[in-house]
């Protein structure tokens, strides 16, 4: 049965959405095309009509995941305009976010995998990380000649590192201690 262009476009978006979640849960190499397409409710044969390669899909799924994450940051800020940095910190460095494997931060879930991928995936991550910095930068005051972009890099690195370490260990108290330490450090860095 032939699929209309509209249905094909919808199918493509479904595959990208499903892949963005499944890649975060299992890694780029932790899931095959057959399982990705089944997750989207399509056959493996449909994949090759929609994407050049698995790397092409990985780049598009990464872009989608990073855009979604950036939108969540913006939504947190909009919900708490009196303390926008506090809103980002509360959302990002939370136990709930630590447990969110499918919809959590793609930099935490896939950052080390992305480093081993091709230029398409790396470009998607670069764009997404720059978007994170564009959100964080205006929330951080410039002080002592240190510009807000540099501070945003430090804050982002701290938050991603703390979340990564928090997810990598079994001890819930130690996992929470990493998040708490990062919250304290980020607030101090923002105030300094």
TrEMBL record:
Domain HTH tetR-type: 9-69
DNA-binding region: 32-51
Pfam families listed in its UniProt record: TetR_N (PF00440)
Signal peptide: none
Alphabetized GO MF terms: DNA binding
Keywords: DNA-binding, Transcription, Transcription regulation
InterPro entries: Homeodomain-like_sf, HTH_TetR, Tet_transcr_reg_TetR-rel_C_sf
Name of the protein: TetR family transcriptional regulator
């Amino acid at each position: 049965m032939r699929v209309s262009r509209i249905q094909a476009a919808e199918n493509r978006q479904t595959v990208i959405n499903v892949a963005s979640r499944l890649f975060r849960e299992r890694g780029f190499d932790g899931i095959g095309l057959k399982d990705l397409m089944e997750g989207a409710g399509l056959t493996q044969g449909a994949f090759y009509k929609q994407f050049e390669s698995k790397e092409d899909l990985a780049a598009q799924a990464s872009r989608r995941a990073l855009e979604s994450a950036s939108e969540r940051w913006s939504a947190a800020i909009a919900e708490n305009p009196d303390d926008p940095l506090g809103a980002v910190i509360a959302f990002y460095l939370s136990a709930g976010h630590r447990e969110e494997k499918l919809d959590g931060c793609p930099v935490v879930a896939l950052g080390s995998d992305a480093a081993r991928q091709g230029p398409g995936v790396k470009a998607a991550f670069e764009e997404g990380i720059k978007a994170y910095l564009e959100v964080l930068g205006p929330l951080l005051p410039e002080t002592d000649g240190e510009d807000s972009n540099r501070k945003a890099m430090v804050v982002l690195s701290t938050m991603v590192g703390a979340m990564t370490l928090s997810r990598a260990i079994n001890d819930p108290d130690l996992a929470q201690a990493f998040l708490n330490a990062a919250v304290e450090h980020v607030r101090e860095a923002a105030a300094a």
